[in-house]
């Protein structure tokens, strides 16, 4: 279902997801129950979409001040997968959502993210369909537009993707890299993973830790910000490089020592992926 | 790290005071006369501190202990009007001196490793906590703060003692920490750092210094901080911010970047370096770019006469590229940049967007690899001068 379907972005993205073949069943906008958007019924409450159509996942296009309530409502109604696209959600609210989702055993992707797209299932969010093609490489990224670029680079090289997940640009995403890597490791439709990171925080270092200990599938990465001058607020509205931790260099070093192939530029990834797969005797077939 | 509004020490202390935590008595002074008068009311001695939202004040001579109102006058006259970290000192905090028995470190901070807010304590106060964390990690306590309840574990007094808090003080420290965590939640703080937290000779805990950062995304529910949020920005930065974007000026570069997405922008800096270009700035338009916002940010970029070139790189995810193109064209017609412009547009309504660019003679790139757009711009700005005809061709 789509929460915030009656907004311009919600409506347009619903159309694109439907065209991509996604099973979007209803929309929810409090106060607009009874309307129809892109041929879908709109309800006032999440519970109605669940009861009448069996909705089990939600994309949230609700403005920042109201989005937390919309997500809490979805969790209360039993929704187990939520793509929270909205940016500028206060950290305190996001931490509350993360805690509530953990209590429910549900997954929230985001906030401040482009959502996710599985080439065999559908699209939740705003990932441009022309960037993607079906295949067996998983992509997980903090940056939205870099995720699109990396997917497009792979597509242009004839390497298709299984699922693309944008975990979002906030300092504490509701679902961190590690959880998505674990999902890719379990996923029978994914043979290799590309991780797109950037300066600030500890997400890539934690991912490196996980990759070294647990992952058997090949992982490649690109980390943005090697050329970002220290001390300047950059990255998602303020990723500041502090001392030697959180720098692109330290993240790249951590990933490399975990066995990750790190590209110097996004457009190097297709070639490096093919080399890595060849080395392990696999192909990147668009199966 | 998240965009945060840095509060002045005086503003931070007012918040502590409002939540029942002790601060040294004092007031803000804006002139040497005021500093002198406040010193009298502090009992004849005081501490004079420059109110600038940046560290390193002590080393820069912007914090002075004074032992008479006339010393206060002289110190205030010396400090007011000085510049520190790009800010001019217009206000001073004049406070009572404290009779210090011990100094601790206490903060509530957003910790990416813990993926949440943590309370940090160290018995080593008044020094850089990161140095302590490196040299004596057993003397830095990190305890997660529960996201909703904002509480800390029942075992906190015990944990504090084990990391070096003086015996008998654990209860008082716990109370202070709990109040700090609660106010951190109430005020949407990403950082509430008290360093040093002073134990006075009389046995009380007083916040001698206070550094606070408010979550920028939460300022809508703390509008009293809006002015402080804008104060540190230059006019161009403020204008871009009002358009929903972020402009960062970089040192010594001559190529402008407009992109939608901070990660993409940083990747472009990497690509620029590989191509031998240097970016002068980095304008992240933010999501959902409309014609008006595109027009606004391009106008800011185009009137920068010091650039040798600019690259606009927009992905159309939920951004409609035809609207973006209309905005670029509008800015171009009003005041065309005196330098070559390369525009890369991929995504929603790309075809219409490219047609609009071609109407105004702006070179567009439709290959997905941004590296190619960067290479094209590099060849234009560093290669032999090409005429207008060369600029009109679409790649």
Name its key features.
heterodimer, A: 287 residues, alpha/beta, Rossmann fold, 2 domains, 7-stranded mixed sheet, 9 helices, 14 strands, B: 395 residues, alpha+beta, D-amino Acid Aminotransferase, Chain A, domain 1, Dna Ligase, domain 1, 3 domains, 7-stranded antiparallel sheet, 6-stranded mixed sheet, 36% helix, 25% strand, disordered C terminus
What can you see in these coordinates?
Chain A has 287 residues and is α/β, with parallel strands linked by helices. Chain A folds into two domains: 2-109, NAD(P)-binding Rossmann-like Domain (Rossmann fold); 115-279, Succinyl-CoA synthetase domains (Rossmann fold), CATH 3.40.50. Chain A is 35% helix and 20% strand. Chain A has nine helices and 14 strands. Chain A has helices at 8-19, 46-53, 67-76, 91-104, 144-156, 177-186, 203-214, 248-257, 269-279; strands spanning 2-3, 27-28, 36-37, 40-43, 57-60, 81-84, 107-109, 115-118, 122-125, 134-141, 161-166, 192-198, 219-224, 261-262. In chain A, the strands form two sheets. In chain A, strands 3-4-2-1-5-6-7 form a seven-stranded mixed β-sheet, with helices on both faces. Chain A has a seven-stranded mixed β-sheet with strand order 9-8-11-10-12-13-14, with helices on both faces. In chain A, helix 3 (67-76) packs parallel to helix 4 (91-104), helix 6 runs parallel beside helix 7 and helix 7 (203-214) runs parallel beside helix 8. Chain B is of the alpha+beta class and 395 residues long. Chain B has three domains: 1-23 and 99-232, 2-Layer Sandwich (D-amino Acid Aminotransferase, Chain A, domain 1), CATH 3.30.470.20; 25-97, Dna Ligase, domain 1; 234-392, Rossmann fold (3-Layer(aba) Sandwich). Chain B has 14 helices and 19 strands. In chain B, helix 2 (32-41) packs antiparallel against helix 3, helix 9 packs across helix 13 and helix 10 (291-302) packs parallel to helix 11 (321-334). Chain B is elongated, with a radius of gyration of 26 Å. Chain B starts with a strand and ends with a helix. Chains A and B meet through helix 1, helix 4 and helix 5 of A and helix 9 and helix 13 of B.
């Amino acid at each position: 279902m789509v929460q915030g379907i009656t907004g311009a972005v919600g409506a347009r993205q619903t159309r694109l997801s439907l065209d991509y073949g996604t099973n979007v069943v209803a929309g929810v906008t409090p106060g607009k129950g009874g309307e129809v958007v892109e041929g879908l019924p709109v309800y006032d409450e999440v519970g109605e979409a669940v009861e009448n159509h069996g909705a089990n996942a939600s994309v949230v296009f609700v403005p920042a001040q109201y989005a937390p309530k919309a997500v809490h409502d979805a969790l209360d109604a039993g929704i187990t997968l939520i793509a929270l696209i909205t940016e500028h959600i206060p950290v305190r609210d996001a931490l509350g959502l993360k805690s509530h989702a953990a209590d429910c055993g549900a997954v929230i992707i985001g906030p401040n993210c482009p959502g996710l797209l599985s080439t065999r299932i559908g699209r939740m969010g705003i990932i441009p369909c022309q960037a993607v093609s079906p295949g067996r490489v998983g992509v997980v990224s903090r940056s939205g537009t870099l995720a699109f670029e990396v997917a497009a680079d792979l597509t242009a090289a004839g390497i298709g993707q299984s699922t693309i997940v944008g975990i979002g640009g906030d300092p504490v995403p509701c679902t961190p890299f590690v959880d998505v890597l674990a999902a890719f490791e379990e996923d029978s439709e994914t043979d290799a993973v590309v991780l797109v990171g950037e300066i600030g925080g500890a997400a890539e270092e934690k991912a490196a830790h996980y990759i070294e200990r647990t992952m058997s599938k090949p992982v490649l990465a690109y980390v943005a910000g090697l050329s970002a001058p220290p001390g300047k607020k950059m990255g998602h509205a303020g990723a500041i490089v502090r001392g030697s931790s959180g720098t692109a260099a330290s993240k790249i070093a951590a990933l490399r020592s975990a066995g990750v192939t790190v590209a110097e530029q996004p457009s190097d990834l297709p070639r490096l992926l093919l080399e890595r797969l060849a080395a392990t005797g696999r192909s990147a077939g668009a199966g | 790290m998240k965009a945060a509004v840095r509060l002045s020490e005086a503003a931070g202390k007012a918040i502590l005071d409002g939540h029942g935590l002790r601060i040294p008595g004092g007031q803000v002074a804006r002139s040497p006369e005021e500093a002198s008068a406040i010193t009298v009311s502090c009992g004849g001695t005081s501490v004079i501190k420059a109110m600038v939202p940046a560290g390193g004040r002590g080393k820069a001579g912007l914090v002075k202990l004074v032992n008479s109102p006339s010393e206060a006058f002289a110190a205030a006259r010396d400090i007011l009007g000085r510049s520190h970290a790009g800010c001019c000192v217009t206000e001073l905090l004049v406070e009572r001196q404290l009779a210090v028995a011990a100094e601790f470190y206490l903060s509530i901070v957003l910790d990416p490793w813990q993926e949440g807010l943590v309370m940090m304590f160290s018995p080593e106060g008044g020094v850089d906590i990161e140095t302590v964390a490196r040299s004596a990690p057993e003397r830095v306590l990190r305890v997660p703060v529960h996201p909703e309840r904002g509480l800390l574990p029942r075992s906190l007094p015990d944990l504090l003692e084990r990391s070096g808090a003086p015996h008998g003080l654990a209860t008082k420290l716990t109370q202070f920490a709990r109040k700090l965590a609660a106010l951190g939640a109430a005020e949407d703080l990403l950082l509430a750092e008290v360093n040093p937290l002073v134990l006075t000779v009389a046995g009380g805990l007083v916040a001698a210094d206070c550094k606070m950062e408010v979550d920028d995304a939460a300022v809508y529910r703390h509008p009293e901080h809006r002015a402080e949020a804008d104060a540190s920005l230059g006019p161009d930065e403020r204008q871009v911010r009002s358009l929903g974007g972020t402009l960062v000026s970089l040192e010594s570069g001559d190529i402008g970047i407009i992109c939608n997405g901070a990660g993409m922008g940083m990747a472009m800096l990497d690509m620029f370096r590989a191509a031998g270009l240097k970016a002068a700035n980095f304008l992240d338009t933010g999501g959902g770019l409309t014609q008006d916002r595109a027009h606004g940010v391009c106008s800011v970029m185009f009137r920068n006469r010091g650039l040798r070139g600019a690259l606009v790189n927009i992905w159309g995810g939920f951004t409609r590229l035809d609207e973006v193109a209309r905005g670029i064209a509008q800015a171009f017609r009003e005041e065309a940049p005196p330098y070559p412009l390369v525009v890369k547009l991929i995504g929603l309504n790309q075809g219409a967007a490219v047609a609009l660019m071609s109407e105004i003679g702006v070179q567009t790139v439709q290959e997905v690899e941004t590296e190619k757009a960067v290479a094209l711009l590099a060849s234009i700005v560093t290669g032999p001068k090409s005429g207008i005809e060369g600029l009109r061709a679409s790649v």
